[in-house]
């Protein structure tokens, strides 16, 4: 597999966009900019390449499919989709919910990923398999049926050793841990905003 970071850098140097660079308009109900959010989400899916197992392909494909649903709606109605919140409200007015459903599932996938990595970063003795399994139980598992759960369980068991994963993120481990922590904080903030927004009664479909 190709190295995930440039010489002397980290994985995050290659990311097209960090969640820290996804605008949030606090004066407009924490409106999250659609274009930048989708770019950051696409960058996150590259992390599953670093995890290195084909077992994670369904996880990455699921996220990519949901990103496409949201972007398709944005391209269809750009003036109504500048923020994710506007996109949802305006799509639901049309009695359709393809992109809204995509955002719900993308948010769940991002929540799963952020919880797994945060737990692993906070608990230096935990292997990735433990962190990902715990995060799956806290997030996606409740929404998955009998056919999907084994696929995700296989992915949890196929995670690389902790030391190998972090080595693929960069040579300077102090910098890797700091940048991963900053990236996660921004991701967690935006996931929290979306979970609250999508949980509102008027945004159910």
UniProtKB/TrEMBL annotation:
Gene Ontology molecular-function annotations: ceramide 1-phosphate binding; ceramide 1-phosphate transfer activity
Alphabetically ordered keywords of this record: Transport
GO cellular component entries: cytosol; membrane
Domain Glycolipid transfer protein positions: 32-170
Protein name: Glycolipid transfer protein domain-containing protein
Organism of derivation: Salinomyces thailandicus
